[in-house]
Sortase
Amino acid sequence: MMSIISDLQKHIRFIIQHRWRFLCMYLLVFFFTYLLLSLFGFVPESMNRISEGSMNERVVVEQKAPIEPERIVIPEANVDVEIRNPQGNNIATLDAELKKGAVHYPGSALLNEGGNMFLFGHSSYLPIVHNRNYKAFNNLQKLKEGDSIYVYAEGLEYRYRVTSVALAQASEVVVDLRKGTGKRLTLSTCNSFGDIAERYIVEADFVGSYPIAS
């Protein structure tokens, strides 16, 4: 019995003295086991998705060429709508496009372009509407400073942070459409459907662009 205890103590002392060697061997065995399991498809997909999502979250994409916005999502206002990009800015054209979604005002900045990107859309609080785009920009007035706005195009997510929300007389609203340094976003909608006297104006600063996680 004493000899068994003595042998056990010797083994323990040996392991302690060579603990770094054992640790390295353990890590190597773990790494190669994980690699083999990955090659044969035995690693759970959820682990891969989490890893890829974490990487995408850290990758900021720098794009050069201006591109048209395709979709806008504002979680705090329950907004998720297509963005239309008309080529003309006559009233008939803009009115027709407003029935199909939010509208990017022609001549205002595009994504990846310095200046102010101006988007506008309808709001309606009628209990029944036959076209959901009449409610495209409902609840913009509920936004507050610091809320996030997401604009999507060509597989990328462009993030903006709200800096101000205001109700103004339509006759007093002046949106700066000059191109230049800095990237900003301005949203506008009527106070209620058919009311052209007042506008809610939301201004936001660009945060960054990121690849959309698959």
Remarks:
- The longest helix spans residues 19-39.
